[in-house]
Every structure is written in structure tokens, then in C-alpha cells.
């Protein structure tokens, strides 16, 4: 397989994608540029038009990721889709907050929703980090310790076997007698 044998410096750009989606990385940059352009030229700062344009770009990115499912690792896939859902939901809550604030400035339900959604996404990120990075590292460490302990036990058994053999005792006695 090409991805397993490739040692080039560009491997980091596409190694997390399935082979048929190796060229996916430029599309992610297009979405990043599109969101920056939307924020810069989509309307006045904090305007409803700006939020709607940014939401359109985020929804397009989410649909693209859902339709293609380009990632090799399921956890990276979950995190990317979860991040897109989080962004779209945050933009929706921002619209709701603006509407609530225009109606009654004391309404804070949407603001609380944005905070809760941010915390939920943070927990998702920690879960993905735990499953994709920390758990494999702990399993590898446990396997290393098990191999190390098995090697030590084998060495101790061999040493005990050599010390318990009748031939080893004869050799030791003969060495003692010959040196005397």
C-alpha cells in the first residue's frame, strides 16, 4: 500500500485520509479560506447576514465531510463531524441570542446553550483524545512492561535451572578443589 511505504515529507498532509481521499487536504483549506472570506466580506461585524454566510460555509463543510467520510481513523472522523456540528449549532444559537436580545435583553437562554454546547464539545475532544492517543499509549506501555517482566522471569528461571543442576555443583566443587 502506498500510504504504508511513503516516507516523503508530504505524508503528513494526507496520511489521515483514506487512499481515495488523499487529495482531501486542499478542500479543507478551501473551506478555511471560505470561512475567513465570509467573515471579512459577509457583512457588518456581528450582523445576522454575517452569521448566515458563515453558517452556509459551515453547513457545506459538514455536508462534504458526512458525504465523503474521508478519514482512516474513526475517532478523527467523529471529531471532524462533531466540530462541524458544533460550529453550525453555535451559529444557530448566536442567531437565537441576537433575536432574543432584540426582543428582551434579559433573556439568556441562548447564551447558556452556547456555553453548554461548548462544554459538550470540549468533552468530546477529550474523549477522542483519550481513545485515539492516551489509551493506545497506555496499552503499549502495559505490553512493554509485560514483555519486560516475562524476559526477567525467563532469565531468573534459566539462572535457577543452571544453579540447580548436578553438573553445575560438580564444576563448582572441582574449581574449589583445583584452586586449593
Write the layout of secondary structure elements.
Elements: H1 2-5, H2 11-14, H3 24-41, H4 48-68, H5 74-103, H6 109-164, H7 166-179
Helix pairs in contact: 3-4, 4-5, 5-6
Could you characterize the architecture of this molecule?
It is a single chain. With 180 residues, the chain is mostly helical. The chain contains seven helices and no strands. Mean pLDDT is 78; it is low at 172-176.
Helix/strand order: HHHHHHH
Q: How would the global form be characterised?
A: elongated
Which spans have pLDDT < 50 for at least 5 consecutive residues? 172-176
Average pLDDT, all residues: 78
Report, as a whole number of angstroms, the end-to-end distance: 69 Å
Given helix and strand content, the structural type is: mainly alpha
Number of helical stretches of at least 4 residues: 7
Q: How many β-strand stretches?
A: 0
Query: DSSP strand (E) fraction?
Result: under 5%
**Range of helix content:** over 70%
Radius of gyration: 30 Å
Most strands sheet: none
Amino acid at each position: 500500500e502506498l500510504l504504508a511505504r511513503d516516507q516523503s515529507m508530504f505524508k503528513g498532509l494526507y496520511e489521515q485520509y483514506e487512499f481515495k481521499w488523499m487529495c482531501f487536504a486542499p478542500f479543507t483549506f478551501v473551506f478555511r479560506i471560505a470561512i475567513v472570506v465570509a467573515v471579512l466580506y459577509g457583512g457588518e461585524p456581528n450582523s445576522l447576514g454575517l452569521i448566515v454566510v458563515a453558517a452556509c460555509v459551515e453547513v457545506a463543510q459538514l455536508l462534504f465531510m458526512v458525504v465523503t467520510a474521508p478519514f482512516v481513523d474513526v475517532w478523527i472522523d467523529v471529531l471532524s463531524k462533531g466540530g462541524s456540528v458544533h460550529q453550525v449549532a453555535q451559529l444557530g444559537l448566536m442567531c437565537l441570542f441576537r433575536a432574543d436580545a432584540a426582543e428582551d435583553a434579559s433573556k439568556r437562554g441562548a447564551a447558556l446553550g452556547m456555553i453548554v454546547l461548548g462544554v459538550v464539545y470540549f468533552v468530546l475532544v477529550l474523549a477522542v483524545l483519550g481513545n485515539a492517543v492516551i489509551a493506545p499509549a497506555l496499552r503499549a506501555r502495559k505490553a512493554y512492561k509485560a514483555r519486560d517482566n516475562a524476559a526477567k522471569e525467563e532469565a531468573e528461571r534459566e539462572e535457577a535451572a543452571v544453579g540447580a543442576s548436578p553438573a553445575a555443583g560438580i564444576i563448582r566443587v572441582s574449581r574449589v578443589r583445583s584452586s586449593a
